[in-house]
């Protein structure tokens, strides 16, 4: 396991700038999640670190060693590809043992068998070991491709949306499993997703990408509580943050254009009157969908839920986030 | 609703015909379509086969159709299996088959592998390499006899250029030792492109991401070649071998053009021998039996081979 440092990394494909000036330190033993929509440059970042793609500018160092000119094999990274890239002519067992059979490793036969069995057990694919890779469902293929990374003990695990094609239960299981592998092995992980639950639950650090740029890097708490911009704010949190014009609550101070209101950041019983459109009961909590002068707002209902659809309720922002006309957050000294 | 093609056709059908067709069931119409094909197959494939089997048990001679035909049981087959000429011709076929397949697979795969590397103008190279395959065997046979001509031929000249041997000191087509090889060379020249094309299709079917995964899994280029490239191209390669094998088992045209089976009978392959027995010596019954033996051999070998091919594809 090792520390990975990116310094001013850039990569273009023709005129398209896929990654721009990216600097990031992935500490030894950290679990970094890269968050961003499709096309933000997440996959390209992973491919640059793995060495499948060569960076135009900047440096990549792994474990204190600049690896810009090293092959993927020399860099010693494990990668889970976004599309399941299994060896179609091999069985699941052969797919899983493929990385271990590398002559560099000199792993003994017994060790390979044991390791494959262990990983297959974690990923719940032991019963499919003798299937051909092409005889699996999408979810099973994805698990095998995760497994092919997990059998190794690389400098860093790179995972490109590994859970995106799995069903909800398995995804929850594997989130916990990955987190366990991370803390037990002290593994370093760089994990790409556009699913914010995965980011919040697993990450020690989150990096938010916007059109090839790393716009914020910090702990999930920091990103959630102190987003640098509207863009970052709307990447984390479910339901999404409410972005509203500042005048709506008469909060304009000349600088603030938009306020960001997390669903839990409202005080009931004072402020503006909004009508209740819809109520969502989600078991442990209840969501209210409100309408305030034509603006839809989603909030968390106070416990007990004294409201019903069609009635009116007064709400007041509680510590809202303020953004200027460029969508950047205005940071005030006094909270 | 707008009128479909079917509606239009139905309307244009003359009333008399329409009335007739209306009475037919789907099954009957299906037979109507398949019938002509089945009829053709029966008359030009199945019937001759059965007739040949029948003739193979007789002493019939096609140049004496009025002579009484005697059924002589398995005598023809016994004589063929004891005929040293036949065995020599089978050996010539086996030699030709083995070496053409060997060289065509080796060179064809190598060329495909090189062409598959992304370089500028590889499409042009593919077109150039494929040219020989597009020529008629008669033409190829003809101009190679010129190329092989000891005094003025290009082939001997090239060999001389590289080895320094006297160009008129050897005759590719005239020498007992060299003649079998001269045919192997021409067939390889002509048909390697075919094997190359099929291998190329195989190589192109391997997605890049598999090599990327292998790269990440720290497999060396050599290991990638043997654990990914070869196994994934193998079904294609085997298909090419099947096509070429069946074609070359019945090789006729090139040999007739180049050596006519000579010198002596060194290049007299089974098919040439068969033609001689049937249409020069007019031993119709005897050659029918030989044809049946060849048929069973090809059919048997091909079936075994196709089984193996399916097994490889299943993997
Ligand atoms: N090989 C490539 N050739 C051309 N453009 C590419 C290539 N790979 C990625 N891109 C472009 O770079 C941008 C970032 O892509 P990618 O890293 O795959 O995004 P993400 O994984 O976040 O969805 C996209 O606009 C994509 O079209
Ligand atoms: Mg991607």
Structure description:
The complex is a heterodimer of chains A (335) and B (315). Chain A has 335 residues and is of the alpha+beta class. Chain A has 2 domains: 4-235, Rossmann fold (3-Layer(aba) Sandwich); 242-323, Nucleic acid-binding proteins (OB fold (Dihydrolipoamide Acetyltransferase, E2P), Beta Barrel). In chain A, 24% of the residues lie in helices and 32% in strands. Chain A contains 9 helices and 17 strands. Chain A has a 6-stranded mixed beta sheet with strand order 6-7-8-3-9-10, with helices on both faces. The radius of gyration of chain A is 23 Å and the shape is globular. Chain B has 315 residues and is an all-alpha fold. Chain B has 2 domains: 5-55, no CATH class; 78-314, MetI-like (MetI-like fold, Orthogonal Bundle). Helices cover 72% and strands 0% of the residues of chain B. In chain B, α13 packs antiparallel against α14 (284-314). Chain B is globular and about 80 Å long. The two termini of chain B are 50 Å apart. Bound molecules: adenosine-5'-diphosphate (ADP) and magnesium ion. Adenosine-5'-diphosphate is lined by residues 13, 16, 18, 36, 38-44 of chain A.
List keywords for this structure.
heterodimer, A: 335 residues, alpha+beta, Rossmann fold, OB fold (Dihydrolipoamide Acetyltransferase, E2P), 2 domains, six-stranded mixed beta sheet, four-stranded antiparallel beta sheet, 24% helix, 32% strand, globular, B: 315 residues, mainly alpha, MetI-like fold, 14 helices, binds adenosine-5'-diphosphate, binds magnesium ion
